[in-house]
TrEMBL record, chains A, B:
It comes from Streptomyces rubradiris (Streptomyces achromogenes subsp. rubradiris). InterPro entries: ArpA-like, DNA-bd_HTH_TetR-type_CS, Homeodomain-like_sf, HTH-type_TetR-like_transc_reg, HTH_TetR, Tet_transcr_reg_TetR-rel_C_sf. This is TetR family transcriptional regulator. The keyword Metal-binding does not apply. Pfam families: TetR_N.
């Protein structure tokens, strides 16, 4: 039992250390020796838990996807029903905040765009894209969208803009910020809301 | 003279091959052996022209910056003065087209976001960012912007969105497309133009 708990702790420490290194150095250059050292284990222990670098990246992505799902579920629980646009704006701000603080979530998003990383590993960005689209379809159903706004088309713009801010934020953290996201929503919201009183671009 | 011409041709072939490989594989994984092979020269000849991988990447970026400047100058020459917003929309579409076809231009943009690439190499994206901002300041001067629109704030949104489309386009070319850029401008233009008859979101 104690042994099993220790194994779970080691696995978590390795995932956290790998996320740090993948996010800071990129998948290719990230060193397994440095990752095991940061996690406080031998490289033998790393290979016991994750036989390959791919397996380690895959575990980071799985953990990141889980955190994204929890983040979105939390936002859904806090938002009154029938306010899908507010949910979308708030979730974007929450994600921006968390991407700065949470290396696992950040690495999950970044591995999706990392050419050095095998293409089969990833999907956190895709999850975010699908959720944006589903939420805008919900907004259409509840009459929150102005006539003529097509959820799938708008979803692509929202998604591209958030990916752009996150990409630029890798070199300059000021880009992946609530200030920048607020600028986007200030531009977009008045064009897409049916009601004059749409959600606050800065989030609620 | 003939020898000098051959040197210029070799240099160009190496830059083109390097751009292909940097863009396809990323800076870190790109192989100098494969680059010299594609350029039809020995690795010795590659090292004669470019002593390091960094020097080669730097040459790709310099060539890409030159192409971007020419592209923007061409758009400026074709656009009637006093139509800065139309210039911005058209240049974005022209850039999107060229990014798909021109590996040197594409690699120049991508090396900016490539964590494996030394940070001092780059600046093509920054050039694009500065040009967007200068063009929007011009639009403000000629009264094309709606009251309350702040050029620097709008420039950040336009820049982030184009970087997002280009980043997503690395894995799925459908993203870096005029269709996607048109969606963005369809959303943004009615919010920012002083006049009801702004430029065509699909470009002119």
């Amino acid at each position: 039992m104690v042994k099993q708990e220790r194994a779970v702790r080691t696995r978590k420490a390795l995932i956290a250390a790998a996320a740090d290194h993948f996010s800071h150095d990129g998948y290719g250059p990230a060193s397994l020796v440095a990752i095991s050292r940061q996690a406080g284990v031998t490289t033998g222990a790393l290979h016991f838990h994750f036989p390959t670098k791919e397996a380690l990246a895959s575990a980071v992505v799985t953990a990141a996807a889980q955190r994204l799902r929890e983040l979105l579920a939390g936002c859904e629980a806090r938002t009154p029903s029938g306010e899908a646009l507010r949910l979308l704006v708030d979730a974007g701000h929450e994600l921006t905040r968390r991407l700065r603080e949470d290396a696992v979530l950040r690495a999950g998003f970044e591995l999706d765009g990392d050419l050095g990383c095998p293409e089969g590993i990833g999907g956190v960005r895709g999850l975010w894209c699908l959720w944006i689209q589903a939420t805008l379809e919900q907004a259409e159903k509840t009459g929150e969208l102005r006539e003529g706004v097509v959820p799938a088309q708008l979803a692509a713009v929202v998604y591209a803009c958030t990916v752009g801010l996150q990409t630029l934020g890798r070199r300059d953290p000021g880009w992946c910020s609530q200030r920048m996201l607020t600028r986007f929503w200030s531009l977009a919201l008045p064009r897409i809301t049916a009601d004059r009183r749409g959600p606050d671009p800065a989030g609620s």
